[in-house]
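Kindly review these tokens for lecture notes.

. . .
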Amino acid sequence: MRNVTLILNDGTRFHGKSFGYEKPVAGEVVFNTAMMGYPESLTDPSYAGQMIVTTFPLVGNYGVPPLTIGSDGIPLFMESNRIHASALIVAHYSEHHSHWNAAMSLAQWLKNEQVPGITDIDTRELTKVLREHGVMMGKIILDDEPNNIPEADYEGVNFVDSVSTKEIIRYNEGAGKKVVLVDCGVKANIIRSLVKRGVEVIRVPWNYDYISLDFDGLFLANGPGDPDTCQVAVDIIRKQMNQSIKPICGICMGNQLLAKAAGASIYKLKYGHRGHNQPVRMVGTERCYVTSQNHGYAVDAASLGADWEELFVNMNDGSNEGIRHKTNPWFSSQFHPEACSGPVDTYFMFDKFVEILQK
């Protein structure tokens, strides 16, 4: 293992060892508090441009499942067909793995995908630094190549455009109701969850004008980066809402894009919500759910128009976790009801959307 150093943009340094692909890399350093699910997290397009710090100390012990594609074209065990995160930063990498479905080690997978992985990092201290200062840009350099220092390109970059489909893809074609899914970086389990409920999914690029298509409902997917870089998508959503009251559901960035189309504003969280243990409460009830989350931006609920209201709020910091229109069938969640990995307490969001489609 070669010696490597993580350098944060405030000058803080963390020294460790390389166990993945050996190259310098730069990106936004974010921490995830989940205890499991690194194959799903690494293949989640929402992590594009980011280096993931896992707060759980042991990573790699169950290896990596095969990239198996189902007959419907959807990956069975991953959230997309490749790793999207820029790097993985862990406290202890387990060199030995054991799992019935493991096809290779985490180290081998990272090397195959040319993604750096570093271990022997004090991730507890690193997380404390990120919590106190806020999310920072960082660089991973190889100690024996001190002059090979990369530069991060993150602010203002439209990462959605880099991960969204470039063509229209149909799933479950010929099934019941038709749902247009705006792909901002959709996770595979969102598609699985819709297909499982017997609808046809029409997956379109993030900036595609779908107004003229034949469909019964609109689904706005998750995605990476700053939602303010996706104004084209917002304008199309707003046009759709002005022309029709067809059901709309959004997840994560979908929540933010729907809110922007409704006239609300977005702000960046200090260090975001990433993990499987975020508690949210459904507004107007005492029902609280444990949710899987991965986002660095939030909707300013105070900027919502009179026709809109909050649907969920975060119990840790009071930030918005979902919105709904007071009369039309338009609603969304900031968290991931499809989880994968994570708790499935809020899977009912898909049931509610499909139920409205049938009316």
About this structure: The chain has two domains: 3-142, 159-358. The longest strand covers residues 266-282.
